[in-house]
Amino acid sequence: MDPSLHAPFPAHRPRRLRRSGWIRDMVRETRLSPADLIWPVFVREGRGIEEPIPSMPGVSRVSVDLLPRLAEEALALGIPCLALFPQTDPALKTPDAAEALNPDNLVCRATRAVKTAVPGIGVMLDVALDPYNSDGHDGILRDGVIVNDETVALLCRQAVVQAGAGADILGPSDMMDGRVAAIRRALDEAGHADVAILSYAAKYASAFYGPFRDAIGSAGALKGDKKTYQMDPANSDEALREVAIDLSEGADMVMVKPGLPYLDICRRVKDAFGVPTFAYQVSGEYAMIEAAARNGWLDGERAMMESLIAFRRAGCDGILTYFAPRAARLLRDAA
Ligand code: PBG
């Protein structure tokens, strides 16, 4: 845009379009709607339990029997999709992550509970081994190395099990090479051609996942870090290559993760590919805003809404966010 196309001051006064609420509404470039939100939910064993997660104030792990109520709430608020994450019993975690392949594992039972009670809500599941792996990694660890191809073979089986439980969208979040193509093929061969893939295409090795690892109970287990498979936060061109690879392998939608510190990546991805692009406002981003708000250092509601519109402005079609129900309620009340 050529700035000289504007009349100079005093003919041009940008403040004219900010004078009052109605005119700001009229010229607003981007909007946020509950339909843009995916609500990540932590699931646990037991009955009638809502267990607060200390490092994510305001977020709880809920038992499977409470999920239908929560799904109804999402539907009523206009939130289209839940992303379910299991806190697996530590006794079920093994080096081969076998529980990931159990069609009756926690996340599969949770998925069936939601889809049976509230078929009109979408369910997304992570394809990755970290909730099931005794060493906390997304892949299989052998002699200190995360082995790629062996992991991909397991991810394919995990994806088929999850699709069988009724998941609508699968999110490979493991960052193994070649996984999207392999998972797509496995799903198709198993009769799940309609299950969509939203790949965690540009997923960075980030400190902002800390509270999530508390929530699913993988923090204590994690040996080392995830830098041999998740991306270096210093890289941007590489994110475009990762997205191109995943799209060429059959991803229907792509994700950038974390969110706010990586808005430049969101914008580049949207501009370069024009495909449905999502960002994950991760646990640590949520915790930062919430901690400051609870200390009285920030206006929590305003910070929440400002952070969410930033994703839309950066080109994202949607956002995975722990704020989903609160933001949707606020949007409803404002309408
Ligand atoms: C695991 C996974 C992680 C998140 C989503 N899926 C953590 C990780 O990669 O260690 C993070 C989400 C969050 O922090 O909110 N594959």
Detailed description of the structure:
The chain is an alpha/beta fold and 335 residues long. It has one domain (31-334): Alpha-Beta Barrel (TIM Barrel), CATH 3.20.20. The chain contains 11 helices and 12 strands. The strands form 2 sheets. An 8-stranded parallel β-barrel has the order 1-4-5-8-9-10-11-12, surrounded by 9 helices. Strands 6-7 form a two-stranded antiparallel sheet. Helix 4 (148-164) runs parallel beside helix 5, helix 7 packs across helix 8 (263-273) and helix 9 (283-294) packs antiparallel against helix 10. The protein is globular, with a radius of gyration of 21 Å. The structure holds ligand PBG. Ligand PBG binds at residues 126, 128, 130, 138, 173, 209, 212-213, 226, 282-283.
What is the level-2 CATH architecture name? Alpha-Beta Barrel
Residue fraction in strands: 15-25%
CATH class: Alpha Beta
The total beta strand count reads: 12
Task: Let me know the largest β-sheet.
Answer: 8 strands, parallel, barrel
- Supply the number of structural domains: 1
Our count of helices gives: 11
How far the N terminus sits from the C terminus, by CA atoms, comes to: 33 Å
Which structural class is indicated by helix and strand composition? alpha/beta
Question: Quick gist of this model?
Answer:
This protein has 335 residues and is an alpha/beta fold.
Topology record:
Layout: H1 21-27, E1 37-44, E2 50-52, E3 60-63, H2 67-77, E4 81-86, H3 106-117, E5 122-127, E6 140-142, E7 145-147, H4 148-164, E8 169-172, H5 179-189, E9 196-203, H6 210-216, H7 237-248, E10 253-257, H8 263-273, E11 277-281, H9 283-294, H10 300-313, E12 318-321, H11 324-334
Parallel strand pairs: 1-3, 1-4, 1-12, 4-5, 5-8, 8-9, 9-10, 10-11, 11-12
Antiparallel strand pairs: 2-3, 6-7
